[in-house]
Model the fold of this input.
Amino acid sequence: MTNNKLELRKLDINDLDNLIALQNKIISGFHPDEQHFILHRTREDFAKALNSNTAHVFGLFDGNKLVSQSILSLPADDQKRELPEYASNYKNSEIAVFKAVLVDKDYRGQGLMKRMLKTREEVARFHGRKIAITQIAADNPASWVNALQYGMQITKVGYDPEDGAKVIYLQKALYQSESLNIDIDKSQKLALGSDVHANVPILFNKMQKMSQCGLIGTAWDKERNAILWHPLKEEKQQSKIQINQVISKRAYGF
Ligand SMILES: CC(C)(COP(=O)(O)OP(=O)(O)OC[C@H]1O[C@@H](n2cnc3c(N)ncnc32)[C@H](O)[C@@H]1OP(=O)(O)O)[C@@H](O)C(=O)NCCC(=O)NCCS
Done:
């Protein structure tokens, strides 16, 4: 179900209070063990993003009410970028980083996260970015399943170098030339099980192993409630992923 009545806007500093209010509402709805699903941004963090020329903050409004927000970061080559541990074979100016998507509880399940993914993808492509990347907490399957459904691919599974949290890294090619050359004839399924939240620790270990073996999580099979994994076809493409994996092995000592 898609809610098309909501109005999409690029936010500015006048929306600061709205952003804080929605974030606070969402944080207060989290269980204690869900608090790390999102970075708890301060007023200063949001103000910095709203005033930055390398970030775009988007909001979806139901009338005057902000019901969803997200950030797109388009780093410059001379800047320190987010997720330096990922996709480091790309220059900053080739990358778009998807961050901080939040949807008001009353508006979930209507495709708003996907709409935010689509919006940021279009803007990133408009700015000539080659790939979009994101990092999602492993125990937030609502978010990574959604990103997979949208067409992002899992290419790395590991630990956040800053806080050690279990995380999943996903990417999407914004141009055909950047697409990973997947061998669609060889697939493996990873069933998520009937209680995906309870299964996260086991799923994380399995996904990490699959990713270390060079498999790419490419799609979600709704009927079987499973993730499909495929190997890459060509040497050339393989090297793109291998660079990431070598770096993660060095950083985390696998
Ligand atoms: C994650 C979040 C943004 C999803 O937003 P949403 O607008 O409800 O997502 P969409 O409507 O686009 O997609 C729904 C899909 O997401 C997945 N999903 C949503 N909630 C889920 C849940 N609780 N458990 C498992 N999967 C879930 C399902 O696959 C669902 O697909 P289906 O409708 O075919 O079953 C929203 O739940 C949220 O704001 N959570 C709190 C903040 C957060 O975790 N942000 C992500 C940070 S990376």
User: Anything to note?
Assistant: Residues 70-252 form a domain with the Aminopeptidase fold (CATH 3.40.630.30). The two ends are 42 Å apart (CA to CA).
